[in-house]
Amino acid sequence: MFGDYSLGDLGSIFVMQGFAGLILFSVYVLMALGLAIIFGQMGVINMAHGEFMILGAYVTWMTSNFFQAYLPSLFSGYFFLAMILAFVASGALGMLVEWVLIRHLYKRPLDTLLATWGLSLMLQQAYRSVFGAREVGVELPQWMLGSLHVTDSIEVPINGVFVMCLTVLITIGVAYVMYKSRWGRQVRAVVQNRIMAGAVGINTEKVDRYTFGLGCGIAGVAGSAFTMIGSTGPTSGQLYIVDTFLVVVFGGAASLIGTIASAFSISQTQSTLEFFMSGSMAKVLTLLAVVGILMLRPQGLFALKVRK
Amino acid sequence: MTDNRFFNRSEFFGILVLAVFLVVVLPLTLDVFRLNLVAKYLTYAFVALGLVICWGYGGILSLGQGVFFGLGGYCMAMFLKLEASSVENTKIQSTPGIPDFMDWNQITALPLFWKPFSSLTFTIAAIILVPGIFALIIGTAMFKRRVGGTYFAIITQAVAAILTILIVGQQGYTGGINGMTDLRTLKGWDIRPDHAKIVLYFFEVGLLFACIMIAQFVRHSKLGRILVAMREKEDRVRFSGYSVANFKIFAFCIAAMFAAIGGAMFALNVGFMSPSFVGIVPSIEMVIYTAVGGRLSILGAVYGTLLVNFAKTSLSETFPELWLFGLGGLFIAVVLAFPNGLAGIWGDYVQPRIDRLISSRKPKPDGWTDSSVADGAPAE
């Protein structure tokens, strides 16, 4: 399959596909970060994670429309406000869902899967009723359009670079919150031993609620970033949910570094393969490889502790 | 009627009631179109039945039952499609004698893996064996390495995603997103007219009862008790010297084979097979049929499937907007409030009243849930 290309061409192909893979990587990381917190730390299988992401995307879309209509002079900066709003909206919905639904199901992880799947169906229908079945796309501000010329044969789009920078910042932020802050310590304490954590004075119910809210809020930010590179429809979230779960499981559910490493390897494999064969076959081969490796190494790439 | 290896006295009455309902009441009260709809719903009941054994008794939640449903269905559909693509039927194609979608995709000869499907014997064997062996491979790989619970659910889901993408992508070999349509005859017998639909319905009900009997047998055997023990405390069963993995593989394979029979009947009854019955969404819907019926109740699986599908058809006909809210709400309500589904409601509320009514006249209890098994929600 390499026969028809010269060495220089191949180099450019790998760089360009590598960059496309990096954008996919950013989306995976952003979605998987929230899920790694919810699934990896709390053990809740949140099938509605994609819908929380889409909520963030719709919030971004509404913000951009609002700025276009009422504050056109500030339009170039609307995205930063939209991201905060997306985080707040998804996080608030997440905390509500935790209070109504999830807190009754912590001892039955497989049932959280069914209940959150039901939730995802309802949210999808709600989006369809409110925003319509058509996909919507946001208007990008001027400075995000266009692309950077690196060499003659290599060009990288600016919005892609922006999404990647955002991913790096959010990842650092999450890592800081989880591993350095007082609150992150409480979260990890509750995960490791709920009873003991309660005994030393941590309000475990409150920690659960905020943890779930944080995971959903990050999904909202992911959705916000997602609008930069694609359009949003009521069922867009469902397309990514299985991939995201595979990313989290492949990386080793409780490991942040594992999540990032697995998102990187999956997205790079897929986008490199995509150049040489049809998109569907690239996806099939990537998923097969992931499932195959998981069968050989069920604990994932970076296992921190024993499962169950 | 004395107790035997298939059912006890109360279960016998439950099966009898279901048999009368499916064989006498429905055919007499419904027209052929509605009866064919019931036949379509009942194909899912096979899947739900398998899930009762695998999920309810074994505690293994598979979110990839659509894969086996699809494999069974595609095996059947390949046979029917080959028969519908005889040389005289397809003489307008540039290559006569091959299925139409292959011709549209510039394939000029029948692919090798299609060739054995011109034999009905091979097809019937394949309907059972292909999904069975596939489940055996997945099950062996997963359970021998002690992957279970949520991890297993996620990986089966990934398998469902892979198979869907593969079928949609390989249009020339599988018919792509449209699937295999225009299936006409089975060994020269036209499956499309009304009387054929009725014959197929009764055949399917017969198969369903055969599967119910197998499920009852498994449940009453020592095997069924080990499955339940395993679900409750896997380690203790392992320490007692049982090979936990092998029992799990068995439950998973049986569920896969039931699903495949359902899929094959689907292809016969509905007259087509497409990837939209293979993927993640239908697979999870099949789990909800079991959950609504009661994950521990074999007969509940059949009632649950019929109820959810009737609700789906009538709601989506009249209020298409409401249907997803209804289905989503059903998921949440069943999980939160009724973990044992219809069978649980029956066992907790209806049956005690009937018992009281009957016991005032005669002393024997009646009903179709086995309270020794159905007590309490399963611990996961």
UniProtKB/TrEMBL annotation, chain A:
Protein's cellular compartments: Cell membrane
Xref: InterPro entries: ABC_transp_permease, ABC_UrtB_bac, BCAA_transport_permease
Matching Pfam families: BPD_transp_2
Coiled-coil annotated residue ranges, if any: none
One BP term from GO: amino acid transport
GO-annotated molecular function: transmembrane transporter activity
Keywords: Amino-acid transport, Cell membrane, Membrane, Transmembrane, Transmembrane helix, Transport
A GO cellular component annotation in the UniProt record: plasma membrane
Transmembrane segments: 12-40, 52-71, 77-102, 109-127, 158-179, 212-233, 239-263, 275-296
Its membrane topology: Multi-pass membrane protein
Family statement drawn from the similarity comment of this UniProt entry: Belongs to the binding-protein-dependent transport system permease family. LivHM subfamily.
Protein name in UniProt: Urea ABC transporter permease
